[in-house]
Design a protein that fits this description.
5 helices
Length: 97
């Protein structure tokens, strides 16, 4: 398939040209990384976005230190008084960390 036009490769494998293009792009990236690092595994993802709970980290830790808190109450407190809407799963993960 090396050097074969995208349309011909798509017809040959009975897939869309878009799919062939995406696969070709992925293969090119993996080959480039392999040449540079000898490591074919993907690197860490870096989204460059702050964690959603970062601004409330210290406040939440203080609330968690109090006895008798319930996750549902903590979630309601965060959702009502701050510009962050949290689900129970995210808050549970924060509490167990």
């Amino acid at each position: 398939m090396t050097g074969e036009p995208i349309r011909e490769a798509a017809e040959r494998f009975d897939v869309s040209g878009s799919y062939v293009s995406k696969v070709g792009s992925y293969v090119f990236k993996v080959q480039s990384k392999l040449r540079l690092t000898d490591d074919p595994t993907p690197g860490p993802q870096r989204s460059h976005s702050r964690p959603r709970l970062e601004p409330l980290h210290d406040v939440l830790r203080a609330r968690l230190a109090e006895e008798g808190f319930m996750i549902a109450e903590l979630r309601a407190w965060v959702n009502s008084g701050h510009s962050i809407l949290l689900g129970a799963r995210l808050l549970s993960a924060f509490c167990s960390a």
